[in-house]
């Protein structure tokens, strides 16, 4: 079960955290993995690890927010079977404390980046007679997380794009779903704790762990396992859905 033998998979932001775990697991299951990262350097750790494990992996330096770069990269990769739109950046702020430049930056990467990759991927899926897409949303799209205005806005758009694409391409054998993790322990979390809560890192880490009723953060491998299911033939009947993976965050938190 869950074989990705003979599948070509693109994972954006595959050089770190959740994307790295997805890239490694997909390669292990037999996929040829193409990591899209800001630089070759930011993909290197994942590429080295996958190669050392005997996996097939390529990296492409490309900013998902740049339309032309994304088009050229997908054309170079060619016909694909799987796309995981995972690249994303964090932001802390309420609407009145979010400067316009920050809002634009979050929209450019977390929303336009997903649009760019979907737009570039559809012709390549057609060459493969269909395929499957997983978009990385967040529980921020489901509930109001305090102080995450721009980020929540962007992830709400990711969920809506998922539905739109699932509907528009259902007749072309393309499935599209999204995953909504609660807090997962990755460099993304460590980075925004050290940037926004300097001097109170340990306290903040514990607070963020306890915000999941299960009492801890998720692990990148746990998100990768759900992504594998959604991208495998075993989930062939699943499309147009968002899957929370959240240690009880949405339903058990009160
Ligand atoms: N970690 C969490 O708690 C959490 C929770 C819910 C959702 N998510 C989402 O999961 C995804 C991955 O998060 P993570 O925690 O693994 O993050 P991460 O920061 O560890 O990794 C993200 C990767 O994306 C790459 N990237 C960023 N901007 C890019 C761009 N413009 N073009 C190409 N690559 C780019 C980065 O270089 C990095 O390697 C994000 O979309 C995030 O919003 C994370």
UniProtKB/TrEMBL annotation:
Top-rank taxon: Bacteria
InterPro entries: NAD(P)-bd_dom_sf, Sc_DH/Rdtase_CS, SDR_DHRS6-like, SDR_fam
Keywords, ordered alphabetically: Oxidoreductase
PROSITE patterns associated with the record: ADH_SHORT
GO MF entries: oxidoreductase activity
Cross-referenced SUPFAM superfamilies: NAD(P)-binding Rossmann-fold domains
Record has Secreted as a keyword: no
Gene3D superfamilies: NAD(P)-binding Rossmann-like Domain
Classification via PANTHER family: DIHYDROANTICAPSIN 7-DEHYDROGENASE
Family according to the record: Belongs to the short-chain dehydrogenases/reductases (SDR) family.
Protein name in UniProt: NAD(P)-dependent dehydrogenase, short-chain alcohol dehydrogenase family
Organism: Flavobacterium fluvii
């Amino acid at each position: 079960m869950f074989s990705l033998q003979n599948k070509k998979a693109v994972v954006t932001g595959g050089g770190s955290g959740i994307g790295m775990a997805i890239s490694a697991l997909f390669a292990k299951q037999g996929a040829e993995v193409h990591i899209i990262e800001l630089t070759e350097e930011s993909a290197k750790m994942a590429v080295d690890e996958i190669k050392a494990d005997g996996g097939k992996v390529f990296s492409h330096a490309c900013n998902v927010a740049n339309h032309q770069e994304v088009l050229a990269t997908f054309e170079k990769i060619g016909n694909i079977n799987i796309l995981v739109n995972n690249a994303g950046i964090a932001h802390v702020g309420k609407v009145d404390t979010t400067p316009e430049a920050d809002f634009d930056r979050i929209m450019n990467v977390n929303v336009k980046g997903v649009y760019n990759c979907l737009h570039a991927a559809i012709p390549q899926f057609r060459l493969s007679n269909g395929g499957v897409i997983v978009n990385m949303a967040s529980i921020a799209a489901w509930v109001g997380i305090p102080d995450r205005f721009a980020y929540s806005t962007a992830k709400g758009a990711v969920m809506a794009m998922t539905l739109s694409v699932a509907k528009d391409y259902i007749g072309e054998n393309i499935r599209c779903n999204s995953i909504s993790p609660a807090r997962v322990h990755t460099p993304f979390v460590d980075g925004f704790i050290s940037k926004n809560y300097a001097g109170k890192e340990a306290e903040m880490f514990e607070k963020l762990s306890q915000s999941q009723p299960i009492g801890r953060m998720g692990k990148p491998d746990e998100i990768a396992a759900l992504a594998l299911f959604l991208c495998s033939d075993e989930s062939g009947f699943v499309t147009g859905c968002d899957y929370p993976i959240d240690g009880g965050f949405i339903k058990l938190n009160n």
